[in-house]
Specification:
Rossmann fold, 6 strands, alpha/beta, about 220 residues, 6-stranded parallel beta sheet, single chain
Length: about 220
């Protein structure tokens, strides 16, 4: 099995929690990426203080303003990646950004809550992946001697253990979060089938239970 040796990675939702941890993890690899794009809704706000500190000590890190619910932000993010990478293409996209309003039970649901989760947790990773696809295809082409995997070109959609065969653990009542994560898991399978002929791996990953604002 080849070791993880990714030349470039773009991660959404990196201002805190698992997203920020992923940025640090890549930087600590024996062979860290030449370019780490750490995106979040606002790299200049108080929530991103630690992320800015990481970037200030690591010239390989580029902070990117990206709200995955904004088409304009997505387009600007692609422009930034293209400017930094030039003709090299993007090796790995990690769609981590998500929301979880923590509303519990059927009676607490609102249309606004359901739709906001759909926009961020389903449309967000799909449209970010769509926008980055030309860059991923370029990396796949340039590394076509590599086997299918993250070292060549890949999309990883961060999932959750709540998405089981029964779609929810006993007692779980966060409808908006669990249902949109289930939809995202189905989208991951569909993306995998469509993009594998291009030499692009698509996979879902659950980080396990992590003590963050979400959990």
């Amino acid at each position: 099995m080849s070791k993880l040796s990714v030349e470039s990675v773009f991660i959404t939702g990196t201002s805190k929690g698992v997203g920020r941890g992923l940025v640090k993890g890549f930087l600590e690899l024996p062979n860290p990426p030449k370019n780490v794009f750490a995106s979040c809704i606002d790299p200049d706000n108080d929530e991103a203080v630690e992320l800015r500190d990481v970037a200030s000590h690591n010239p390989s890190v580029t902070l990117v303003k990206l709200d995955v619910r904004s088409d304009a932000d997505i387009a600007n993010a692609v422009t930034t990646v293209q400017r930094v990478l030039g003709q090299r293409g993007l090796n790995l996209l990690i769609n981590y950004a998500a929301i979880n309003s923590q509303l519990h039970g059927l009676e607490s649901l609102t249309r606004a809550d359901i739709m906001s989760h759909c926009d961020c947790n389903v449309a967000g990773p799909l449209l970010v992946s769509q926008a980055m696809l030309p860059l991923l295809r370029k990396a796949s082409k340039q590394n076509e001697t590599q086997p299918l995997g993250c070292n060549r070109a890949a999309i990883v959609n961060m999932s959750t253990g709540l998405v089981k065969s029964k779609f929810s653990l006993p007692g779980e009542r966060r409808f908006s979060y669990v249902l949109t994560k289930a939809a995202a898991a189905i989208a991951t399978v569909m993306m995998s089938r469509e993009l594998s002929p291009d030499g692009i791996l698509v996979a879902g990953m659950c980080p396990g239970w992590v003590k963050t604002d979400m959990g």
